[in-house]
Each structure stands twice: as structure tokens, then as C-alpha cells.
Amino acid sequence: MRNLSWILLLILLGTLPFQACAVEKKKAARKASKADVAKPQTPAAPKKLPLLLDFGRGKCIPCKRMKPILEEMIKECEGKAVIRILDIDQERELTEKNKIMMIPTQVFYDTTGKEVYRHVGFFEKDSMRTHLRALGAVCESPK
After folding, report:
1. What angle do CA 9, 12, 14 make, to 5 degrees?
2. What is the greatest pairwise CA distance in the chain?
3. pTM to 2 decimals?
């Protein structure tokens, strides 16, 4: 019985390096996926454009009202600012990283990727334009 205990202990100790290696691989994979998720948080490097992230959910009434406005603004601001509409259910890590507590929430970033303004709730188009304009993005309706 005593020999069996020693054999089991040796087997267990022999598998520890393999378990540690698997844990390290999982950590590395998690780190890589977090880096991928963090990419939308900062503007595209070559363009250096201001960024507006809108966090919402498809079932939320104010979010539904804002979606067509934001889609219009995406077209109007093309090449001047980056606007992303994010669903909190699909972008959980980014939502947590940005500490989103209520929806809709709009987060504005300058060209360096620094958060400069945050708004919670429905946001009028003209107000969003004003904040983007302060960041150097003049977005106008196509004529």
C-alpha cells in the first residue's frame, strides 16, 4: 500500500510540468485574444482619427433609436473619424475594459487613443457632431 502511494505521488509530480505548460498556453491565448479585442478601442494607427464607440444592445429602446443615427454618421464621418456600434453581449471584454455600466454609452477618444468624453443615454446627432468636431473631425451631411 505504501509503495502504491509513492508511485501515485511520483506520477502526479511527473505530470505537473505538463499541467503548468498547459496553463501558460491558456494564459498566452487569453492575452492574445484580449489584445485583439482591445484593437477597436484605439484609432487606426496610420490614419490617426478620432474614435467614437457606442455601446448598446439590440433590445434597448434608446439603442434602437440611436442605431440609424450612428449608421448615418458612419457614412458622414468616413475618413474623418471612426465610429463603431458595439453590442455589449458580443463585446463583453471590451465592455468590461471600458467599464460600461449603463446603455447606451458613447465613448469618445482623441487621435492618441485617450478617452476624452463619455455620455450615457440617448445622444442627439448634433451633440455627437459637436464632440467629434472638438476632436478635429468635421462630419457633415452629404449634399
Report:
1. 110
2. 88
3. 0.66
Evaluated on CA atoms 117, 120, 124, 125, the torsion sign reads positive
Measured distance CA(140)–CA(143) in Å, rounded? 9
Dihedral-angle region of residue 82 (phi above 0 means left; psi in -120 to 50 means alpha; beta otherwise): beta
> Could you tell me if 54 and 125 are in contact, meaning their C-beta atoms sit under 8 angstroms apart?
no
- 142 belongs to a structural domain: no
d(CA 114, CA 60): 28
Q: Same structural domain for residues 97 and 72? A: yes
pLDDT tens-digit map of 112-130: 999 999 999 999 999 999 9
- The CATH number linked to 77 is 3.40.30.10
